[in-house]
Design brief:
The chain is an all-alpha fold. Helices cover about 80% and strands about 0% of the residues. The protein has 23 helices and no strands.
Length: about 550
């Protein structure tokens, strides 16, 4: 049994750690998504600096080609149309220079851009133009780039072609195998492509080990980091681990945002996962961001993929908003009913207070009669004298109780009136926020504890003022019961501290620790600890300390 408990504790600790780590990833993703425009502006600034180079006087075609290629790198997964413009110009420059290597490189770049933009006819025509080349006479990089471009083209084309989709997917796989045959097996690119093949072949564990090893070594949030995270998300999707899939999609999408990568897949996939998990609001934010990116980049495949799920999430989000509005209306009705009940309660309390006032007046007249009777019997025998002293003590306690009641009743009326005004103001604020449909601000007000904390602070200040009005010498009398070095020194503008407030309640007859704890919003154990600690500082016997506190301020007989 003990071993089971230890294992359960370890599992619980690991679960808590995992959840905390996942929450941190989501918080960082939210920050990145909120600053999406900022990262895009950084990309625009980077591109502007490169474009300035084109204005350099007397640059030759080779230099212009290199600058255009830098712009191609900056634009290709940011704004595909702009990348196409500069790549087409590089094709023309390479033709003028009669530079075969540069020409082939630019043609492959252009085919890749056509694939991203969904211009598959143009991409296929570009591939056909390169098929006649003797690849043995071309540099090593041509084969790997050529196979990579074909793999991407046919894989993308298969997703849009319902009739020949399977055929194009098989071509994509063949080109992927050819790509693996020419890549350096130690390169990260080879390992990523190989992991994809392992996953397609249901060798999930091998793919996971390979990708996690690479991801552990990936320290910077670059494009490769995003690709690795996306690949790991696909691994965990295959394993049915939704939480890990979501975590790596968050990491991948966050890297895409920070690198201003508009041609991305992780954000769309994350939206689908969040939607299936029932997180409609965040799924809507992600799918809307994915749609914005796809349209911004003019990535037709991404736009097509997003358009299939966007109406579903959008409809669910609108239903969720409508449901929240209905709940808000119900809440407002409930608040109105509670306000009405509160008004009725105040009226009832007012009637009870009038009744108490009448009883107090009767008690006052009774006290006068008792005092007259005590004066007449003052010179009686010793037994009657002792009895008179007991009656006097009773009258003193009644007089003290009447003073307390009178002070607290008057103050209670003021507090009731103040609370009615505050509730009415709070209700008006909520009604206005609801009428203006400021749901986020309304939720923030409802969630905040600021009003409760302020009211508690005001309650304690009112209690301190009224109590010290009844017992103005309480602090001095209380300190006289303590050792000199243990006496309380109050701060500036402080009437009572926590310990003094506890014993003030005891002086009023509230001796139960749980009741004191409820009033002061402490735990019963905390109250017990405070009482014990103060008794240990007593200058009088500890068992008599609280009895002597109860006698502070008692009216003395003349």
């Amino acid at each position: 049994m003990r071993h089971c408990l230890i294992l359960f504790s370890i599992f619980l600790a690991l679960s808590c750690y995992s959840k905390t780590k996942s929450d941190t990833v989501y918080v960082n993703f939210e920050k990145a998504l909120a600053n999406k425009d900022f990262y895009a502006q950084l990309k625009f600034n980077e591109i502007a600096e490169i474009r300035k180079l084109l204005s350099t006087p007397h640059i030759n075609d080779q230099q212009r080609y290199d600058i255009n290629h830098q712009l191609y790198d900056a634009y290709k997964i940011f704004i595909a149309d702009s990348a196409i413009v500069y790549t087409k110009e590089n094709v023309e420059i390479a033709q003028r220079l009669n530079d075969a290597h540069r020409l082939i490189g630019s043609q492959l770049d252009l085919i890749g851009l056509y694939t991203v933009s969904g211009l598959y006819i143009e991409a296929l025509n570009g591939i056909r133009e390169l098929e006649h080349l003797d690849k043995r006479k071309l540099p090593d990089w041509f084969s790997s780039y050529y196979y990579q471009i074909n793999n991407q083209l046919y894989k993308s084309y298969s997703l849009l072609n319902d009739i020949n989709g399977k055929e194009y997917l098989e071509k994509s796989i063949l080109y992927r195998d050819s790509l693996l045959g020419v890549l350096d097996t130690n390169s990260n690119f080879y390992k990523i492509v190989y992991a994809e093949k392992l996953l397609d072949n249901k060798q999930i564990e091998q793919a996971q080990v390979l990708l996690e090893e690479m991801f552990g070594k990936s320290t910077s949030e670059d494009h490769e980091h995003a690709v690795l995270a996306h690949a790991l998300a696909n691994v965990y999707k295959a394993k049915g681990n939704i939480e890990e899939q979501k975590k790596y999609l968050l990491i991948s999408a966050m890297s895409d945002i920070k690198n201003a990568i508009k041609e991305n897949a992780s954000m769309q996939m994350l939206a689908s996962v969040l939607y299936e998990a029932g997180d409609i609001a965040n799924a809507y934010k992600c799918i809307r961001s994915s749609m914005e990116d796809a349209m911004f980049c003019n990535a037709r495949l991404r736009t097509f993929e997003v358009s299939k799920i966007f109406p579903i999430i959008d409809s669910a989000y609108k239903d969720s908003v409508d449901k929240q509005q209905r709940v808000l209306i119900i809440f407002l009705v409930a608040v109105s009913i509670l306000s009405f009940l509160l008004i009725m309660a105040v009226i009832y309390v007012y009637k009870q207070m009038k009744r108490i006032a009448r009883i107090r007046k009767e008690l006052y007249h009774t006290n006068i009669k008792l005092k007259d009777l005590n004066d007449n019997l003052q010179n009686s025998n010793e037994k009657l004298s002792k009895l008179n002293l007991k009656l006097f003590d009773v009258n003193s306690e009644l007089s003290e109780a009447n003073q307390i009641k009178e002070a607290y009743i008057g103050h209670f009326l003021d507090l009731c009136s103040t609370y009615i005004d505050k509730i009415e103001s709070y209700q008006n604020t909520l009604r206005k926020k609801a009428a203006d449909k400021k749901l986020e601000e309304l939720y923030k007000i409802l969630k905040s504890r600021e009003m409760i904390d302020n009211e508690l602070k005001a309650l304690y200040e009112n209690f301190d003022n009224i109590f010290l009005h009844l017992y103005p010498n309480f602090v001095e009398d209380f300190n006289s019961l303590l050792l000199n070095e243990e006496r309380f020194q109050l701060k500036a503008n402080e009437l009572l501290n926590a310990e003094l407030r506890i014993f003030a309640l005891i002086r009023l007859g509230i001796t139960d620790s749980s009741k004191i704890a409820k009033f002061l919003h402490y735990s019963a154990n905390t109250i017990y600890s405070y009482r014990t600690r103060v008794r240990n500082k007593s200058a009088v016997p500890r068992e008599q300390f609280e009895n002597m506190v109860m006698k502070i301020g008692i009216i003395k007989p003349d």
